[in-house]
Amino acid sequence: MDEHGLIAKAWRLNPDMKSSRVLGRCKHSERVIELNRYWTMNAPVADVEQVILHEIAHALTPDAETSHGREWKAVARSIGVLRPKASTDTSVGIPQRLRAVCPSCGNVFFRQRMPRNETLFRHVTCFPVHTPESVLLWEKVS
């Protein structure tokens, strides 16, 4: 971060983000780059470095038209990001706390947190229309 002038601009790194859906996040309003705690501790160092560079590119382009547009990609490549795109592909799985099984096909779903409106959460392939029988029942994974 210092190499790219962010420390001088009061940016900081928070390696303790508790999200299960993203590997890193750049918060311009707080001048902080956050990293997924579990993933950071278990992923290869080279992958963690790429995520940090990805987020540094976001910090360096606060006025970019889109978060992964041409301007951002140019900056990302210039600082060493090898694949400048958003990614949810993790080489280390983040353990999920909840599991549900579709009552029709048996497909298993995992989540970190309970859905906001669990009574509407269904497997849309099997149940295109909501019915009481379509509701997925969530249980804690041991």
Written overview of the protein:
- The protein is built from three helices and six strands, in the order E-E-E-H-H-H-E-E-E.
- Helix 2 (45-60) packs across helix 3.
- It is 23% helix and 18% strand.
- Strand 4 (98-101) and strand 5 (108-111) form a beta hairpin.
- The protein has helices at 37-42, 45-60, 70-79; strands at 12-17, 24-27, 32-36, 98-101, 108-111, 139-140.
- The protein has two domains: 2-79, Metalloproteases ("zincins"), catalytic domain (Zincin-like); 98-140, no CATH class.
- The chain has a three-stranded mixed sheet. A three-stranded antiparallel sheet has the order 5-4-6, with no helix packed on it.
- It is an alpha+beta fold.
- The termini are far apart.
The end-to-end distance, rounded to whole angstroms, is 39 Å
- The overall pLDDT average reads 83
Uncertain spans = none
Range of helix content: 10-25%
Spatially, the strands of the biggest sheet line up as: 1-3-2
Total domains: 2
Give the CATH level 1 class of the largest domain.
Alpha Beta
The second-level CATH architecture of the largest domain is 2-Layer Sandwich
Q: What characteristics describe this protein?
A:
3 helices, alpha+beta, 3-stranded antiparallel β-sheet, 6 strands, elongated, Zincin-like, 142 residues, 2 domains, 18% strand
SSE order and pairing:
Elements: E1 12-17, E2 24-27, E3 32-36, H1 37-42, H2 45-60, H3 70-79, E4 98-101, E5 108-111, E6 139-140
Parallel strand pairs: 1-3
Antiparallel strand pairs: 2-3, 4-5, 4-6
Helix pairs in contact: 2-3
Give the gist of this structure:
The chain is of the alpha+beta class and 142 residues long. Helix content is 23%, strand content 18%.
